[in-house]
């Protein structure tokens, strides 16, 4: 139905239809980095990719990311459908890449879920669906990573980093900054994710310290 009004929707659906169902991971580990903007994901993922001689992928994947601004201006259900479809298209890339090298991913399903849950809920983080709710479960038909790392920094430090970057804010980033309750709901949603759960890493120290901590967690959870 969207395709008549949004030509890009047809292209996304075409890519989605070409993806084989129930993608299987290759022999190399798949490691996802999650977190709010300005928690250091870009820096850390690049450093881990270089250290492990890995392949770096992002969500939404490169083949559809140029349409992100189009869908970000659409009503919430359409926007969420775009990001959800992006995860399944990304899974195809992960399946192929993980036969060649370790795969490092800047955001995946947990981001889509956490922002959706936080948007659909109002009030404080206590008002979120209960911790055991199925909304926090990984989808059965989506390729699962070996490890998910959640990078966190305190709110003041995150705002300082955003101001230092001086980049134009996304709508969601503006909401995060203006609405501390929304930010708390997003972070708490991340923490409630299961199968796999997020391993939390304090990304406040120096880049070198954060990288060292991250590599220790990876070594502990992934076989190399």
UniProtKB/TrEMBL annotation:
<keyword id="KW-0175">Coiled coil</keyword>
<keyword id="KW-0665">Pyrimidine biosynthesis</keyword>
<keyword id="KW-0545">Nucleotide biosynthesis</keyword>
<dbReference type="GO" id="GO:0005739">
    <property type="term" value="C:mitochondrion"/>
</dbReference>
<dbReference type="GO" id="GO:0006235">
    <property type="term" value="P:dTTP biosynthetic process"/>
</dbReference>
<keyword id="KW-0809">Transit peptide</keyword>
<protein>
    <recommendedName>
        <fullName>UMP-CMP kinase 2, mitochondrial</fullName>
        <ecNumber>2.7.4.14</ecNumber>
        <ecNumber>2.7.4.9</ecNumber>
    </recommendedName>
</protein>
<keyword id="KW-0547">Nucleotide-binding</keyword>
<dbReference type="GO" id="GO:0050145">
    <property type="term" value="F:nucleoside monophosphate kinase activity"/>
</dbReference>
<dbReference type="InterPro" id="IPR039430">
    <property type="entry name" value="Thymidylate_kin-like_dom"/>
</dbReference>
<dbReference type="GO" id="GO:0004550">
    <property type="term" value="F:nucleoside diphosphate kinase activity"/>
</dbReference>
<dbReference type="GO" id="GO:0004798">
    <property type="term" value="F:dTMP kinase activity"/>
</dbReference>
<dbReference type="Pfam" id="PF02223">
    <property type="entry name" value="Thymidylate_kin"/>
</dbReference>
<dbReference type="InterPro" id="IPR027417">
    <property type="entry name" value="P-loop_NTPase"/>
</dbReference>
<keyword id="KW-0808">Transferase</keyword>
<feature type="domain" description="Thymidylate kinase-like">
    <location>
        <begin position="33"/>
        <end position="210"/>
    </location>
</feature>
<dbReference type="InterPro" id="IPR014505">
    <property type="entry name" value="UMP-CMP_kinase_2"/>
</dbReference>
<dbReference type="GO" id="GO:0006227">
    <property type="term" value="P:dUDP biosynthetic process"/>
</dbReference>
<comment type="similarity">
    <text>Belongs to the thymidylate kinase family.</text>
</comment>
<keyword id="KW-0418">Kinase</keyword>
<keyword id="KW-0067">ATP-binding</keyword>
<dbReference type="GO" id="GO:0006233">
    <property type="term" value="P:dTDP biosynthetic process"/>
</dbReference>
<dbReference type="GO" id="GO:0005524">
    <property type="term" value="F:ATP binding"/>
</dbReference>
<dbReference type="InterPro" id="IPR018094">
    <property type="entry name" value="Thymidylate_kinase"/>
</dbReference>
<keyword id="KW-0496">Mitochondrion</keyword>
């Amino acid at each position: 139905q969207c395709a008549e009004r949004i030509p890009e929707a047809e292209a996304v659906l075409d890519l989605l239809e070409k993806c084989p169902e129930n993608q299987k991971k290759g022999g190399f580990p798949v490691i996802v980095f999650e977190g709010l903007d300005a928690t250091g994901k870009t820096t850390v993922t690049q450093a881990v990719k270089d250290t492990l001689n890995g392949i770096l992928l992002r969500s939404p994947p490169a083949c559809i990311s140029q349409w992100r601004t189009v869908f970000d201006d659409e009503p919430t259900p359409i926007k969420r459908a775009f990001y959800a479809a992006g995860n399944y298209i990304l899974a195809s890339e992960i399946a192929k890449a993980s036969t060649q090298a370790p795969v490092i991913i800047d955001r995946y399903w947990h981001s889509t879920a956490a922002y959706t849950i936080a948007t659909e809920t109002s009030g404080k983080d206590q008002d979120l669906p209960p911790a055991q709710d199925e909304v926090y479960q990984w989808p059965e038909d989506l390729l699962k990573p070996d490890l998910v790392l959640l990078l966190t920094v305190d709110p003041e430090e995150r705002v300082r980093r955003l101001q230092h970057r001086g980049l134009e804010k996304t709508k969601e980033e503006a909401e995060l900054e203006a609405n501390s309750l929304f930010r708390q709901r997003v972070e708490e949603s991340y923490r409630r994710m299961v199968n796999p759960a997020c391993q939390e890493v304090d990304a406040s120290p120096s880049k070198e310290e954060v990288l060292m901590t991250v590599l220790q967690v990876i070594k502990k959870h992934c076989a190399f």
